[in-house]
Backbone:
């Protein structure tokens, strides 16, 4: 939000400088006199800033994954492209909807403004739609009293964040789930200490219940509640770059990974 506001102010300021010069200053300037460097920069940067602002506000916005809550689908250091128009266009800064777009589906990966602090963006997977009843019993997820089946994939070698490339590896179990036609992978610690119970909880109207794919290490709707529709930023589409800061390498296998299909 701060970047969008800064970009908006830059567009307005450069546009005003260029407009004032065009309407009032240019006609009084001698033919051989050069325009000031401020006007020159404003005239040069205004179109570029305006295009970037419109693209970010209404079409696509980059987002960097800040935590491991979406492992194994997304890793810390992944950069994803967020679709801002599929679920309906919103006015920048005030977030008022101006079009409806397609409905949000269970299984979508959503970037949203954290309800407890709207200045911070989060990314999670949509688990519950408005009116759904969500319940978690240990590692079992129930939606509307129906168990969401999961297929065992194998052992996932989990390395806690911040321990570097030489950090301790913890074996976890990797499963495949399917929601709303979206297949994706999750990981779970198959220990009583890591499991928790939640619900049953009915998702209010115009709200969404979110969970991370790293089910036992995700700060999500089980702890702070649902995401109101007005907090939606957009739908995460694919990974366009992936950087592993722990060993200074590019994760080539992550680049280009679509988030709509199987993990």
Residues:
């Amino acid at each position: 939000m701060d970047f969008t506001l800064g970009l908006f102010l830059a567009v307005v300021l450069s546009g005003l400088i260029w407009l004032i010069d065009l309407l009032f200053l240019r006609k009084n300037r001698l033919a051989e006199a050069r325009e000031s460097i401020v006007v020159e920069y404003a005239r040069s940067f205004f179109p570029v800033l305006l295009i970037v602002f419109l693209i970010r506000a209404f079409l696509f916005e980059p987002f960097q994954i800040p935590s491991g809550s979406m492992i194994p689908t997304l890793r810390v250091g992944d950069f994803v492209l967020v679709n801002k128009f599929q679920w309906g266009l919103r006015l920048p800064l005030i977030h008022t909807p101006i079009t409806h777009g397609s409905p949000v589906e269970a299984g979508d990966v959503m970037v949203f403004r954290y309800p407890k602090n709207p200045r911070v963006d989060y990314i999670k997977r949509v688990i519950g739609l408005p009116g759904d009843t969500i319940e978690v019993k240990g590692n079992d997820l129930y939606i509307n009293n129906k168990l969401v089946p999961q297929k065992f994939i194998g052992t996932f070698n989990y390395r806690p964040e911040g321990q570097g490339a030489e950090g301790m590896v913890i074996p976890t179990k990797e499963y495949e789930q399917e929601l709303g036609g979206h297949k994706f992978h999750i990981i779970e610690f198959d220990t009583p200490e890591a499991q928790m119970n939640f619900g049953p909880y009915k998702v209010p109207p115009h709200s969404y219940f979110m969970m991370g794919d790293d089910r036992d290490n995700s700060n999500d709707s089980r702890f702070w509640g649902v995401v109101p529709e007005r907090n939606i930023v957009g739908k995460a589409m694919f990974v366009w770059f992936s950087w592993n800061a722990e060993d200074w390498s590019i994760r080539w296998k992550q680049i280009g990974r679509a988030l709509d299909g199987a993990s």
The first helix runs from residue 2 to 25. The first strand starts at residue 60 and ends at 64. The mean pLDDT is 89. The CA atoms of residues 64 and 79 lie 4 Å apart.
